[in-house]
Design goal:
534 residues, alpha+beta, 12 helices
Length: 534
């Protein structure tokens, strides 16, 4: 094995939102990282546009939510509208629940923004090294780590980086996944699409009826930034090299609009739909589109990737810092792969339904048939009311203990309902409750486990461990909402999911140590030290 030019704890491959968020999360844990991106800069294209409530909770934990919200659209843009052309009236509309207005289940709401506005904020959220125009071309794994071969795309110079772990967040065409020989399941490439970024004076058409996306039979239109700019995206025409993109976009604007689009950039891309058969091998792990490519309809793809690294990074930190065993990393795939399959099924089904609505409407108009002024969308509320999926996912793995203290058994993915129902069952996200004005239960999480209990005796006890742990006291009303008796307790993991629950009694030091040992998959830790919240 060649000697590496650089050594880091985690090498992150891919500088999109998922890789950048992983870099910020790992830096909070004190993990040394290097992020490499083969392109020369962050993406100039808008790409993903919806940041859902769960992702905003992650960004709130990183101290980024306010800055992201400041550059995003107002909540009233959290809606989609269906029109024959932008110049026409709506024939259907639906709200993006959890984006269009505050919800009682979270201290934040999602936002409509553009990826090219989000990524610079994420880049600035950490000081860890970043190398642009550095492309991974090969990797090799041994018992101590991974050696990655990188090529500088400007000079052609080769360098090697040795890392304890490698995180592949390099997109649907992931080089990391290909080097591992990991196959995918699912529909695969569904269609070729094109995004056209353009300028046009369209504000007067959406001022009274704002939306994050306007779906038309001639492609979809989306405002890019609160201060201006638009994007069109739709199926790539067969003769793409000879297309007059301004004229094509004008079809979606409407023949009577009298507006011509000033085309700025054009990007062709493939809408993929798959889940990787494995989320990694050994010390190499996959996240985001490298692990699962989700169709863009519904805005679930990037958000699923952010949830991936939120699940993974605390586990990586635990292994690297010595308070978790390598086996805990296996729970990453166990927990996140079923969610990927569930998300893919819903996104594919609703993509097909959305395209059918637009196609049928277009055929009716082409044939000269009368078209209804209002259309009932075929998916009812299910497509855009996603809180059940966004906030209600439950994990079942060795990193979640049942009420009896045994590790949970992995289960096949099951459907979650449209609505989110808060619960303090093990495996679920801790419900949002206001501990004090402006401070949520979700704000109690960070680079530590959190023990929630209504038992005031815990405040006098140094009840944390060689594991990072803090204690938070719940009021009687808060404990009732969590289904806890006076002496019960909840042990919440750093990612906000409940790892263990004691219903009728407070856990003693030995019981707490046993729970943490089981969750983190490590043995040999006997001491208990830590911090108690104020």
């Amino acid at each position: 094995m060649s000697v590496a030019d650089t050594e880091v704890e985690v090498l992150i491959v891919g500088g999109g939102p998922v890789g950048l968020t992983a870099r910020a999360l790992l830096e909070r844990w004190g993990v040394r990282t290097l992020l490499v991106e083969k392109h020369r800069e962050l993406s100039p294209f808008p790409r993903s546009r919806l940041v859902n409530a769960r992702s905003m909770e992650i960004f709130r934990q990183l101290g980024l939510a306010a800055e992201i919200t400041a550059g995003a659209f107002a909540p009233e843009f959290g809606r989609v509208r269906f029109r024959d052309t932008l110049h026409d009236s709506d024939f259907a509309t639906a709200a993006m629940v959890g984006v269009d207005a505050p919800i009682p289940d979270s201290p934040v709401i999602g936002v409509v923004t553009s990826q090219d506005r989000l990524e610079p904020i994420l880049l600035g959220a950490a000081d860890a090294r970043v190398r642009f125009e550095a492309e991974l071309v090969d990797l090799a794994e041994d018992s101590a780590g991974v050696v990655a071969l990188l090529v500088d795309r400007r000079s052609g110079e080769e360098t090697r980086v040795r890392a304890r772990y490698l995180l592949g967040a390099d997109g649907a065409n992931s080089t990391v996944r290909q080097r591992l020989g990991i196959d995918t399941t699912g529909p695969g490439a569904m269609a070729g699409f094109t995004t056209v970024v353009f300028d046009a004076d369209l504000g007067r058409w959406c001022a009274d009826q704002p939306a994050g996306v306007y779906f038309t039979a001639h492609g979809s239109l989306a405002p890019l930034y609160p201060e201006g700019g638009w994007a069109w995206f739709g199926p790539t025409p067969d003769d793409a090299e000879r297309v007059d993109w301004s004229a094509l976009v004008s079809q979606a604007l409407g023949p009577s609009a009298g507006v011509r689009a000033d085309v700025l950039r054009v990007q062709h891309w493939v809408m993929n739909a798959f889940v990787a058969e494995r989320f990694g091998h050994g010390r190499v792990l996959l996240a985001g589109d490298a692990a699962h490519a989700i169709p863009v309809f519904g805005g679930m793809g990037m958000n699923a990737g952010l949830a991936d690294v939120h699940n993974l990074c605390w586990k990586l930190a635990g292994v690297l810092h010595g308070w978790a065993g390598p086996a805990m990393l296996e729970t990453y795939e166990t927990e996140r792969r079923p969610v990927a399959h569930l998300t893919l099924r819903r996104a594919v089904a609703n993509t097909q339904l959305a395209l059918q609505v637009l196609s049928r409407r277009h055929e009716q108009r082409q044939a000269g048939e009368a078209v209804p002024t209002q259309v009932e969308l075929p998916w009812s509320d299910r497509y855009f009311a996603q809180l059940g999926l966004v906030l209600g996912v439950a994990y079942r793995s060795g990193a979640v203990l049942t009420d009896g203290g045994a590790p949970g058994e992995p289960t096949e993915p099951t459907e979650v309902g449209t609505d989110y129902v808060p619960t303090a069952e093990p495996g679920h996200r801790m419900p949002h409750l206001w501990l004090t004005p402006g401070r949520s239960t979700l704000d109690a999480f960070g680079e530590w486990f959190t023990l929630f209990t209504p038992d005031p005796a815990h405040r006098e006890r140094r009840a944390a461990a060689a594991w990072p742990l803090r204690v938070e006291t719940l009021t009687g009303e808060q404990s009732d909402l969590c289904g806890l008796p006076l002496h019960g307790a909840l042990l919440v993991r750093p990612d906000g999911h409940i790892g263990a629950r004691w219903r009728d009694r407070p856990p003693g030091d030995s019981e707490l140590r046993q729970a943490l040992t089981a969750i983190t998959g490590i043995t040999g830790i006997t001491g208990i030290t830590g911090t108690v919240s104020a």
